[in-house]
Specification:
Blueprint: E1 7-11, H1 15-25, E2 30-34, H2 37-46, E3 53-57, H3 65-73, E4 80-84, H4 89-97, E5 102-105, H5 110-125, E6 129-130, E7 136-140, E8 143-146, E9 151-154, E10 157-159, H6 163-174, E11 180-181, H7 182-190, H8 199-212, E12 219-222, E13 226-229
Parallel strand pairs: 1-2, 1-3, 3-4, 4-5
Antiparallel strand pairs: 6-7, 7-8, 8-9, 9-10, 11-13, 12-13
Helix pairs in contact: 2-3, 6-7, 6-8
């Protein structure tokens, strides 16, 4: 089986921008390039690439970055960092509503890009075990989460979750036995500059507990602070 765990997909219609990003990242990651949103979709779904992260420009001909995100999110939860020369609040909010994981405004420094990529990869993999196939998994009694395959099983029965519920659950698992504040969850799961109502978190937490059934008590509410996943 092909291992794409160290691959970053760089999508930008300007070759010079792709070259800059490749120069930043190629010492630590394998880089796959795409010159348009359409080409990126072909690489992801035609060639079945499963990159660790996608760096995706917004302003592109053919299929722009935001349209590409909509199509990607129909089939994949791969982490996406949007790259844009537009730093207005509206553009950031639209990106996060489409469930991008981060938003970087051009011009950016190589250190900033490296740190944001590393942070996403660290959140995706820390504090968990791997199964025989190398999947990052968590198990407690009859509750089993495969965070690589995005699968959750309750007493042997697979439970389908909405994409953001997977993100919320897996963030809590990666920080198991640690008290995490509401602000931290909103920042890490919904985005660095989340502007929405924090009642969004309460709604998603209620839905997640309902989906977890008898294992809902794995999530402890810490009044006045946030939540803790009992691992």
């Amino acid at each position: 089986m092909r291992n794409d765990a160290d691959v970053i997909l760089v999508v930008d219609d300007l070759e010079i921008n792709r070259m800059i990003l490749c120069d930043m990242l190629e010492d630590d990651y394998r880089i796959v390039e795409a010159a348009s949103g359409r080409e990126a979709l072909k690489v992801l779904f035609g060639d079945k690439l499963r990159p660790a992260v996608i760096l995706l420009d917004i302003m592109m001909p053919d299929i722009d970055g935001l349209s590409a995100v909509k199509k990607i999110r129909q089939n994949s939860d791969v982490p996406i960092i949007m790259l844009s020369a537009r730093g207005e609040e509206y553009d950031k909010m639209l990106g996060f509503e489409l469930e991008v994981d981060d938003y970087v405004v051009k011009p950016f420094s190589s250190k900033e890009v490296m740190m944001r990529v590393a942070a996403i990869l660290r959140r995706a993999g820390k504090n968990n075990t791997s199964d025989a196939e190398g999947h990052i998994v968590f198990q407690k009694s009859g509750f089993y989460a495969d965070m690589t395959a995005y699968k959750v099983f309750i007493d042997g029965e697979q439970t389908d979750l909405a994409p953001k519920l997977y993100d919320l659950l897996f963030f809590l698992i990666r920080n198991k036995n640690i008290a995490v504040s509401r602000e931290k969850i909103l920042t890490e799961v919904w985005g660095y500059d989340y502007y929405g109502d924090d009642r969004t978190l309460d709604t998603h937490m209620k839905l997640l507990r309902r989906a977890m059934g008898p294992y809902a008590n794995c999530i402890t509410t810490l009044r006045g602070l946030g939540f803790r996943f009992e691992g």
